[in-house]
Amino acid sequence: MTAMNRSVLAAALAAASLFSASANAALFEDDEARRAILDLRQQVQQQREDLKRANDENASLRRSLLDLQNQIEALRSELAQQRGSGEQLMRDIAELQKRQKDIAQGVDDRLRKFEPVQVNVDGREFSADPAEQRDFEAALGAFRRGDFVAAQSGFADFVRKYPSSGYKPTALFWLGNAQYANRDYRGAIANFRALLQQAPDHPRAPEAVLSIANCQIELKDNASAKRTLDDLVKAYPQSEAASAARERLARLR
């Protein structure tokens, strides 16, 4: 082999070697690119899966949140109903308590209509039924109004209806006065004397004796009137009625 041939062969081998190296380098670069692309695809796929999973979880959370809100609204509605029921219950209880109180008050009022009460009339204290007190005050009210006919009827009915009443001596006194005003002098004398017989120490007794004398004077029975006035001065010398009796005796004499 000549020198020229050796040179050509060497050049050819060098070129072949360079081509082989270039080919290997290009092949290596293609593999790296493919792997990079595959890795990128896997990352993109993973990100898509992660995004889908996140979307699914978000949707699930939204559904859970909606369910929770619905439960909260249901609880609020139930609580409002219970509160309304509780308030109505409280109103019902208050109404029942008021009715119970009214009924109890009504029972007490009715019982008080029949329970004896303590009264003080003409300085004397005694027990009387409410109806008894009412009837006496009605008759006395008629007398004070100047309705002597109604007063006489009222006191006469009272004495018959309540013969043992603590009011009786006072009722007899006002009955006699009503009769005197109605010019029933004999009837008045009878009731004044009934008062003196029943309660000679009654605060109205001196006035009753003086009223008897006044009735006797109206009947033109001055002799009896003088005796009655003398008896008044002797029996009740310190009373105002005795002072009036002395003045009348002086005029009659």
Please provide the count of β strands: 2
Compressed to H and E, one letter per element, the order equals: HEEHHHHHHH
* Tertiary shape: rod-shaped
Query: And the CATH topology of the domain at 117-252?
Result: Serine Threonine Protein Phosphatase 5, Tetratricopeptide repeat
Q: By CATH's scheme, which homologous superfamily of the domain at 117-252 applies? A: Tetratricopeptide repeat domain
Quickly count the helices. Answer: 8
Helical percent range?
Answer: over 70%
Short description:
This protein is mostly helical and 253 residues long. The chain has 8 helices and 2 strands, in the order αββααααααα.
Written overview of the protein:
- This protein is mainly α.
- It has a domain of 136 residues: Alpha Horseshoe (Serine Threonine Protein Phosphatase 5, Tetratricopeptide repeat).
- It contains eight helices and two strands.
- A two-stranded antiparallel sheet has the order 1-2.
- Strand 1 and strand 2 form a beta hairpin.
- Helix 7 runs antiparallel to helix 8.
- The longest helix has 110 residues.
- The radius of gyration is 64 Å and the shape is rod-shaped.
- The model has no long low-confidence stretch (mean pLDDT 84).
